């Protein structure tokens, strides 16, 4: 009698566990972590390009030393602030990382504005190629952030909805992962450019 009950309840127990996100939750979490690795990869690509860009501009605009130093310092800070996949559920650590990256973005924007003031620099093939690479990198960062945020949304939704929320809380102790957020006060408005 006990054996027949076990035989009958075993399939139901298996289905109940499967319905609680036993496999889906770690899969979604690993996907979010993989997308985070893509974001870090694109930031590293940008950090690797910056010294080449600075060196090229330095050759043409030596009197813009403060701008170049600002970029160099921002790059150093951006590469010193790290965030690993285990820290993604800590909003303060995500914000510190994002702030460092935003400082580098701002410094690069000022550096690229220098090229408008120096026609010789603007015409330099190396600068144009590096500027194009940097623009492509910024686009890749935006795509990687978007993909990461989608993976975070999928994971966070999964751990908060029934029936996966049961497995998320009881088995994994899952915590929401922090997405990237716009930090500029008027990020929803396009920047105004004037010459």
Could you spell the SSE succession in H and E letters? Answer: HHHHHHH
What general outline do the C-alpha atoms trace? elongated
| Name of the CATH superfamily of the domain at 46-172 | LemA-like domain
E-strand count: 0
User: Please, what is the oligomeric state?
Assistant: single chain
Q: What is the correct CATH architecture of the domain at 46-172?
A: Up-down Bundle
Describe the 3D structure.
With 195 residues, the chain is mainly α. It has a domain at 46-172: de novo design (two linked rop proteins), CATH 1.20.1440.20. It is 75% helix and 0% strand. It is built from 7 helices and no strands. α3 (65-80) packs antiparallel against α4. 26% of the residues are buried. Mean pLDDT is 75; it is low at 12-17 and 190-195.
Concise structural overview:
The chain is mainly α and 195 residues long. Helix content is 75%, strand content 0%. It has a domain at 46-172: LemA-like domain (de novo design (two linked rop proteins), Up-down Bundle).
Provide keyphrases for this structure:
195 residues, 7 helices, single chain, mainly alpha, de novo design (two linked rop proteins), disordered C terminus
């Amino acid at each position: 009698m006990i054996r027949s009950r076990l035989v009958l309840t075993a399939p139901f127990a298996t289905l109940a566990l499967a319905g609680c996100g036993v496999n889906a939750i770690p899969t979604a979490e690993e996907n979010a972590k993989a997308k985070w690795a893509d974001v870090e990869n694109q930031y590293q690509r940008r950090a690797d390009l910056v010294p080449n860009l600075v060196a090229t501009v330095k050759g043409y605009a030596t009197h813009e030393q403060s701008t170049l130093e600002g970029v160099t310092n921002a790059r150093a800070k951006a590469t010193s602030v790290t965030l690993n996949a285990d820290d993604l559920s800590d909003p303060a650590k995500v914000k510190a990382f994002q702030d460092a990256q935003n400082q580098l973005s701002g410094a690069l924007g000022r550096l690229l504005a220098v090229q408008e003031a120096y026609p010789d620099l603007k015409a330099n093939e190396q600068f144009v190629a590096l500027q194009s690479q940097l623009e492509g990198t910024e686009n890749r960062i935006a795509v990687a952030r978007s993909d990461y945020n989608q993976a975070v949304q999928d994971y966070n939704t999964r751990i908060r909805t029934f029936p996966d929320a049961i497995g998320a809380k009881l088995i994994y102790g899952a915590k929401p992962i922090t997405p990237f957020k716009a930090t500029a006060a008027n990020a929803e408005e396009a920047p105004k450019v004037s010459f």
